[in-house]
Each structure stands twice: as structure tokens, then as C-alpha cells.
């Protein structure tokens, strides 16, 4: 989710978020200026245009319930990722049981060395970037395409 949030921020969207715990990704997003709240509170929904959630979040989450009550579209991470890959001419999705982040990072690094300046969205930290998301100017997007529920 943090990679998608960062990419949307780089595309000039206003982003807010929540997580149950403070962690490295939350800290990094806060440093980028994204308002991240710890804990789930329905009041945090505000006037959102859309709520994007991870498949790890249960449907009884108070923020999801409030968004639905307010008529705010509620979409899964996989759906938002699908929207993001549609903005580039070529998309490369990496899925599987093990090695998705490593493989996605390697593909992104190879494309960058080939001067293709790809967009990259992965679950883990890409060592060469110091982040898990990068908005490139090229026509290729590389994504880590699945979550634990195979979405």
C-alpha cells in the first residue's frame, strides 16, 4: 500500500492513510508529507474521493464501513494497481509465492540501466532506490502484482 500511496502522491493526488502500527513505511510516508494516522477511526475518512484498502483489512473495519455509509467508493489495492498500470504503455507484473520484490526490483533496475526510466511499485524496499515506489518518465511500469489473497 505504501508504494501505491507514494506513487499517487507523485502524481499530485492528496493522500491520507492509516495503519495499526508505526513502522518504517509509515515513517517514510510521513516524511513525504502524507498524513498517516495510527489506528482506524471512522472520523479519519473526512471528504475522501475514494478509499483504497489492503486485502489484509477486514470488511468490518470502521473506516471501510464509514466510507460506504458516505457513498465513497471502496476499492481493493489490486483494483487501484490496475488503474495505475493503465497509465503506462507497457506493464510488467510479477507474481508468485517467493521472490516477487526481488524480481520486480531487478527488472526495474535493468530497465533503468537501459535508460527506460520505468515506474516501479513493489511491496518491499528497493535498495537501489531507498523506497518501494518510483514514478518514472518512461512508458513501462513494473509492479508486484499480488497480495496474500491472490488478488
Using brief descriptors, characterize the structure shown.
151 residues; alpha/beta; 5 helices
How are the SSEs ordered, and which strands pair?
Blueprint: H1 2-10, E1 16-19, H2 24-31, E2 35-38, E3 51-53, H3 62-69, E4 74-76, H4 77-85, E5 90-94, H5 100-113, E6 119-126, E7 131-134, E8 140-144
Parallel strand pairs: 1-2, 3-4, 5-8, 6-8
Antiparallel strand pairs: 6-7
Whole-number average pLDDT? 92
Which percent band covers the strand fraction?
A: 15-25%
Helix/strand order: HEHEEHEHEHEEE
Major sheet attributes:
4 strands, mixed
> What is the architecture of the largest domain at the second tier of CATH?
3-Layer(aba) Sandwich
Distance between the termini: 13 Å
Helix run count: 5
Description:
There is one protein chain. The protein has 151 residues and is α/β, with parallel strands linked by helices. The chain has two domains: 2-76, 3-Layer(aba) Sandwich (Rossmann fold), CATH 3.40.50.720; 80-144, no CATH class. The protein is 32% helix and 24% strand. The chain is built from five helices and eight strands. The strands form three sheets. A four-stranded mixed sheet has the order 5-8-6-7. The chain has a two-stranded parallel ribbon with strand order 1-2. The protein is globular. Residues 1-86 form the Mur ligase N-terminal catalytic domain. This is Mur ligase N-terminal catalytic domain-containing protein. It comes from marine metagenome. One of its GO terms (molecular function) is ATP binding. Pfam families: Mur_ligase (PF01225).
Amino acid at each position: 500500500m505504501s508504494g501505491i500511496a507514494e506513487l499517487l502522491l507523485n502524481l499530485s493526488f492528496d493522500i491520507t492513510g492509516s495503519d495499526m502500527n508505526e513502522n518504517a513505511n509509515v515513517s517514510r510516508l510521513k516524511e513525504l508529507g502524507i498524513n498517516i494516522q495510527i489506528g482506524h477511526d471512522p472520523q479519519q475518512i473526512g471528504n475522501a474521493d475514494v478509499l483504497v484498502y489492503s486485502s489484509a483489512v477486514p470488511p468490518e473495519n470502521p473506516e471501510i464501513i464509514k466510507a460506504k455509509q458516505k457513498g465513497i467508493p471502496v476499492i481493493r489495492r489490486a483494483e487501484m494497481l490496475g488503474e495505475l498500470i493503465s497509465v503506462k504503455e507497457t506493464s510488467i507484473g510479477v507474481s508468485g509465492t517467493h521472490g516477487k520484490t526481488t524480481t520486480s526490483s531487478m527488472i526495474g533496475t535493468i530497465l533503468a540501466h537501459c535508460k527506460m526510466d520505468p515506474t516501479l511499485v513493489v511491496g518491499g524496499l528497493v535498495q537501489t532506490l531507498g523506497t518501494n515506489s518510483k514514478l518514472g518518465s518512461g512508458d513501462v511500469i513494473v509492479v508486484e502484482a499480488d497480495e496474500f489473497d491472490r488478488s
